[in-house]
Task: inverse folding
């Protein structure tokens, strides 16, 4: 749902934001919870101390369309 009580999944670097961390993204007016690692996110944090988070944006049946849009 994206509420604080029911946040949406995001992936990131565990050194930057440990699993279970909850963030609020004003652009989407939603809360997200760190539940997965992201290889690119880990590299960005390790090499540049840059936060990089991949936000879950859609239902499973739309994954292909979401990836095409993201790319």
Result:
């Amino acid at each position: 749902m994206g509420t604080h009580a029911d946040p949406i999944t995001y992936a990131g670097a565990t050194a930057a934001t440990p699993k279970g961390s909850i963030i609020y993204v004003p652009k989407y007016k939603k809360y997200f919870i760190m539940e997965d690692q992201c290889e690119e996110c880990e590299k960005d944090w390790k090499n540049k101390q840059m936060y990089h988070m991949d936000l879950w944006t859609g239902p499973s049946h739309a994954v292909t369309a979401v990836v095409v849009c993201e790319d």
